Amino acid sequence: MEIVFIRHGQGEHTLDLPKSLHTPDPALTEEGIIQAKTLKNHFPLSQSDVIIVSPIRRTLQTARIWSEGIKCQKIVSPLVSPRMFPQNPEWQTLPCDEILTKELIKDDFNDFYLEEELSNEWWLKGINKLPEKEFKVIAEGFLEWCKHIGNKRIYIVSHDGTITSYRQLITGRKLSRNDFPKETGFLKVNL
Q1: Which Pfam families does its entry note (predicted)?
Q2: Could you give the CA distance from residue 149 to residue 157 in angstroms, rounded to a whole number?
């Protein structure tokens, strides 16, 4: 099975760093919208495809634009929400990385399915500050869950730190922020 991790398009929170990281619930910029549209050429979707999406507006917008006109399955999961990389227990979750509520997602993105089998704890806190040992257990379980979906390819629309954390876990290689994917950059992994 192949998993394709895709970073969301350019978000408003990246326009005036570091101040803009304190923007709550940032959307895609005009450039981010263009980037999301180009995913249609790189990864044409069909009805049988599955996209797993982080519960953050910019990832949801990226997935919606990319999948426009295709009735594929879109699942929102906090197990691919923002993740600090590298981890530092003294850092706090930034406003730009706070998970949207299930109610807001249902209202604004009603064509997405919420992964509700997970404890509400994950929907409240996500994986942003999860210590490495705990992340490893949760991430391995998530990857096993992906295998049981039954598709030969699954797309995951997520964030630079999250993608790098999963990549480090899967490959066993020590990575750094230099390994972050660019906006709508992707990483293919065979499991």
Answers
A1: His_Phos_1 (PF00300)
A2: 16
First vs last C-alpha separation in the chain? 5
**Integer Cα distance of 171 and 174 in angstroms:** 9
DSSP state of 190: E
Which sequence spans correspond to the domains of the chain? 2-190
Q: What is the pLDDT of residues 154-188, one digit of tens each?
A: 999 999 999 999 999 999 999 999 999 999 999 99
| Domain at 2-190, CATH class | alpha beta
Taking Cα atoms as reference points, which of 30, 46, 14, 43 lies closest to residue 187? 43
24-57 core/surface letters (b: 16 or more CB in 10 A; e: else) = eebebbeebeebbeebeeebebeeebbbbbbbbb
DSSP single-letter state for residue 154: E
Query: Strand (E) positions, 25-184?
Result: 50-53, 73-76, 113-114, 153-158
What is the distance of C-alpha 157 from the center of its chain?
4
103 contact partners, CB below 8 Å, separation of at least 6: none
- Distance separating alpha carbons of residues 47 and 163, to the nearest angstrom: 25
pLDDT digits (tens, 9 = 90+) for 21-32: 899 999 999 999
Beta-sheet strands, E only, within 81-141: 113-114
